[in-house]
Amino acid sequence: MTTNIGANLVSRASGEDSRKEFIEELRSHFRPEFINRIDEIVPFYPLLFEDVRSILRLAINDLRVRLRDKKMGVRMYQRAYEYLAEQGYDPEFGARELNRAVDRLVITPVSEMVLTGEFRAGDMIDVLMDDGGLTFRKGAPHSKKGAVKAS
User: Which of 21, 25, 48, 140 has the CA that lies 20 to 30 A from 40?
Assistant: First the structure.
């Protein structure tokens, strides 16, 4: 079970005092019978950019697998990851919006470009940041020898 109760306490949490504050916050929302059934309280701290980027990488890797079946690839650049993180991550709500942002800002446009024939088998799709948004272009396919993977 997860809850956002006490989320406002996380930024200043430290040791046993913070545990007491969390318990008091829970008591203000739930009956003692329910709180007594909770075995452990584990605060979730705001994600760092590298955590967010790892989550984004997983979502992009799902797209890579789907494109591999069509003999295509996708290459994400750092600023594109940063843009997706800005659009999809809110410390108050966590990372749940990240997958929606990837769907809306990367998967849907790439799918449309594949359907219209803009990208075809053998293409490498570069995803870059340009003019305040993401841009998709045909990139040079990477070879297995000496390949540098941008992800």
Answer: 48
